[in-house]
Amino acid sequence: MARIGILPLGRPTFDVPFAEENLARMLAALEASGHEIVGPGELLFDAPAARIAVEALKAEKPEQILILQVTFTDASITVEIANGFDVPLSIWAIPEPRVGERLRLNSFCGLNLAGHALGLNGRAFSYLYATPDSEDIGAAIDELLVGRRVSEPVPMVRFEPGTGAGAGAVAALRGARIGRIGAPPEGFDTCLYDPAKLKALANVSVEEMNLDTLFSGAKAVSDEEAAGVRAAAAAIAGNLDDVDQGELDRSLRLKAAIEEIKARGRFDAFAIRCWPETFTEYGGAVCGPVSMMGEARVPCACEADVYGALTTLLLQRISDAPAFLADLVDLDEEDDTGVVWHCGQAPMSMADPDTRIDATIHTNRKMPLLFEFPLKPGRVTFFRISQARGETFAVIGGGEMLKRPMAFTGTSGVVRFDSGSKTVLERVMGAALEHHMALVYGDHRDALAEAAGALGIPVLTL
């Protein structure tokens, strides 16, 4: 048996009591494994606490490091941990029930960000996504710690450029302009980009602005303009009176400000730093405005994800339909489904017609405007222009969005991937992909493969 050094990571904006319950179950499963477990038995909520724990753990001379990804966190401290130990590294993340409530942990997304950052840094790691009290958890932990769940690169294929819709969409994409408003949050390596590489790839340029450009623009919006945006939002969700009216007004003004920036700069898409400053400094969510802009065929990628904006713009043009940049937040091998989700900014044409679109608040930050609904059933295509492991390639997948109750608050959908949830997990973690994927309704895989050929990049089939 090995001496395993554990580091339990969490973030206080999630459900801390629930996280502590799950950590206790994880620790019990580890104790039952027979390995010697050393390290803190409580959640580490910030970088200073994690650094203190890392230094203390070094004195224990662990033979392996196991990060317990109890809630979502960014990847910055994970990279520090990886650099601090020259021993095998593993990450264990946990599912949470799909009961139509908030994402209380969002553990899988934390695993996703961590895997991508480690891949960029060339650091080998193993991973486990499993409930701590599942029947086979003992065997799964053993497999994890003996290196049988290692993240390994996934084979790719190349396609010819062709002369069809995909190649035409790439030709039309060249010369497009993306406005980046604010920088990605710390530890979101998934959202970083190199302007020169982007220009060489697709002849797409980016103009960077600070968040104050958006905030000052919103504050300058006239009452008449704001009333027009409110009328448009009321046509989508009839319960606008149910949320804080001052915060709602500030949120709606963000849409008018984005439209003004678009017109002034002739932008085709945006990558916007959506948190925390829109809440902490400005006082209203940009999610609802992003939903409305997406429906109007102006993609706005969250977390200042420039390649996410590029991805969504190309997918939108190939499909001639609004596209949704979403997080993959759960994979259930037994049910053979996954859940795609974001706070509340999917284009409203993606809503299940048998349900109501509601105006709501951000689950962590408690401010409007977000639109809440389950995604409608139907054929869907997934796409991402990825920079995982330092290489540029296209990720293309297909699946069927199922008619299921809303898995988590915000905008979410339960999907059955063509390749199966087990394979999707292996490919997402093996390739160390970004946490954002764009989706659109219909089957557009052939055109996207042709587009990848026109861009001169290989394809990973999701």
UniProtKB/TrEMBL annotation:
Entries under InterPro entries matching the protein: Fuc_isomerase_C (IPR015888), Fucose_isomerase_N/cen_sf (IPR009015)
Pfam families in UniProt: Fucose_iso_C
GO cellular-component term (any): cytoplasm
Gene Ontology terms for molecular function: L-fucose isomerase activity
Keyword flag Isomerase: yes
L-fucose isomerase C-terminal domain: residues covered: 376-460
Record keywords: Carbohydrate metabolism, Isomerase
One GO term (biological process): fucose metabolic process
Name assigned to this protein: L-fucose isomerase C-terminal domain-containing protein
Species: Stappia sediminis
